[in-house]
Amino acid sequence: MSFSERQKRRRQNAFGATSPPFIDYLKDILRRYPDGGQILKELIQNADDAGATEVVFIHDDRAYGTQALWAEDLEKYQGIVLAKMVL
Predict the structure, then answer these.
(1) DSSP letter at 84?
(2) Using CB atoms within 10 A of its CB, is residue 84 exposed (0-12), middle (13-18) or buried (19+)?
(3) How far, CA to CA in Å, does 78 sit from each of 5, 55, 61, 72?
(4) What is the mean predicted confidence (pLDDT) over 23-52?
(5) Is the pTM of this model over 0.85?
(6) What whole-number distance in Å separates Cα of residue 86 and Cα of residue 57?
(7) 55 and 43 in contact (C-beta within 8 Å)?
(8) What are the Sacsin/Nov domain coordinates in residue numbering (predicted)?
(9) In sequence order, which residues have a C-beta less than 8 Å from that of residue 14 and are 6 or more positions away?
(10) 16: pLDDT strictly greater than 70
(11) CA-to-CA distance for 74 and 10, rounded, in angstroms?
(12) From the centroid of its chain, how far is CA 5?
């Protein structure tokens, strides 16, 4: 079985639906930034300047409730996130 076949099978859920590859999620996130994703380049450059040996981006597509927030303006932060860890 080829790599692409394994990837396709991995993305398929129990109902036969498939999810887009991670790169599609990343492209969508970058499209939403007004500068075309310059922020990611800056994050990587900052990690390099700090002497990092590894930069990890984590995509979390979970959405969280908004009923118990401390302030209403925090609601916009309850959706999909792309987080960065520097090691």
Answers:
(1) E
(2) middle
(3) 34, 24, 10, 11
(4) 81
(5) no
(6) 9
(7) yes
(8) 21-82
(9) none
(10) no
(11) 34
(12) 23
